[in-house]
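Input chain follows. Return structure tokens only.
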Amino acid sequence: MLRALIERGIVPDLVLGTSVGAINGVAVAADPTAAGVARLTEAWCDIDRSGVFDGSVMRRLATLARTRTHVHGNASLCAMLTELLPVRLIEELAVPFQCVAASIERAGEHWFCEGPIVQAVVASASVPGLLPPVRIGDEHFIDGGIVNSIPLSRAIALQAEQVFVLHVGRLDRPLEPPHSPWEVGLVAFEVARRHRFVSDLASIPGGVEVHVLETGQTDPPRYTDRSQFRYSDTTNVRDRIARAHEASARYLDEHGLGTR
């Protein structure tokens, strides 16, 4: 999606990120060029070598037994971001950037707009159960998707006039009632996530353009598909990136957005 935008001269004035979108977003905010997108692509294609999700099943179980809250540490993710980013503070990025995380103590969303980049992005991407909460000051933060999965409302509040939504979810796959105990939580989360996004779309003020780019998945996985939990499997990453690029490029061309 990013590659399709950059190829057409569509460069952001502001980047907002949630969860994994904070990682992708900060990379393009640091270097909004074709070269920057290429580096991000290679980072994802090599994620299994980065150590972010390192360890055998037994090692993960041992980590869970020791911590009782998560199966991975976040040191490798911090190291990957430190290597990927040319600056250390949010306000030093080439493009203004903000990311959201969920504050445990306040039970609400918190937007990081300045200060150290790495801890803010890791806080936004700390999926409960996979990575530990990130302590910043007197608060503990977890994945921003818990409170604002697709931050369209934030873009509108910041007076954006044209918004491109780069989602990695399954918004185009209909929901259905759960059929097993382990599906109950997934269904509840999807209902909450989609409800907010649909509500945000319905409340867009006049004069604001919103474009939801396409993933290129002709048959997106069910929200309860267990394959999504194989988060460390990167065998199809390059193919999925290529399909998303093709679909998003087609969408942009059909809507006459940007220039070639």
